[in-house]
Design a protein that fits this description.
179 residues, 9 strands, rod-shaped, 31% helix
Length: 179
């Protein structure tokens, strides 16, 4: 009994000038796609930088509010100290500035390397957080309180933290280079 309609198998001999098969082309495209996505993820620091700045601004806002609450509850002023790469909080104890009694506030917070901090253009300094929850700076012309404005600057974006003595708010500053 023989099968009708089936041809005997042929050997898979290909000519040397036959070109590439569809499978080979798909494999090469898949490898190129994987390599391109890996490169894209490793090179794209822009999105990562924006996330870092937002996280740093939010964390600073929460810590400023915590320091203000502590100052109001204890009746003793606190201080926000900063340099361009870190910040911490101090408290007035027995007439002298010392590390804040709240360990979270006392420990220096090092900013991510993608961020830098400045307060009104100053790379370092100290700001008084009053126990009566009023801003410690007033405008001499109007005698009105001026909120603390802290800029957290990255390579492409800037976030601003505004602190009025009671609450802190963080927001991304608009990019002035775009219309």
């Amino acid at each position: 009994m023989t099968d009708i309609g089936t041809a005997p198998p042929r050997p898979a001999n290909r000519r040397k000038d036959a070109g590439m098969t569809l499978v080979e082309i798909l494999v090469v495209l898949a490898i190129i796609g994987v390599m391109a996505s890996v490169m894209g993820l490793s090179v794209s620091g822009g999105a990562r930088s924006a996330d870092v700045l937002e996280r740093e601004a939010t964390l600073l806002s929460v810590r400023l509010e915590r320091a203000a609450d502590s100052a109001a509850l204890n009746g003793t002023p606190a201080g926000f100290t900063w340099d361009d790469k870190s910040y911490s909080f101090v408290s007035l104890q027995d007439g002298a500035w010392a590390a804040h009694p709240d360990g979270i506030l006392a420990a220096p917070h090092l900013l991510d390397r993608a961020a830098a901090i400045s307060v009104l253009g100053q790379a370092r300094g100290r700001y008084l957080i009053r126990s009566d929850m009023l801003p410690s700076v007033t405008d001499p012309a109007t005698n009105s309180p001026v909120p603390l404005q802290i800029a957290i600057v990255g390579s492409k974006d800037t976030w601003e933290v505004r602190f009025d003595g009671v609450s802190a708010r963080s927001q991304q500053k608009p990019d002035r280079s775009q219309p």
